[in-house]
Amino acid sequence: MIGAGATAIALTVVFVFLGPGWGSAVAGIVAGWFLIALIVVLLRGGRGRDAARRAFIATFGWGEWM
Length: 66
What we know:
Blueprint: H1 2-18, H2 20-43, H3 48-60
Helix pairs in contact: 1-2, 2-3
């Protein structure tokens, strides 16, 4: 959850200081990374909530090392 929170704070900062165009671009990149991770998990046999959890960890798990 730390990674998701840090990402939300970073997105807020980008929206405030660089505007909605850049904020939307960064949010789209994060969403795209999550979708790619979810597709990979689903192709490798993940199902349902477990697949979403594993994709979430692949996207935001870096926050556990902060």
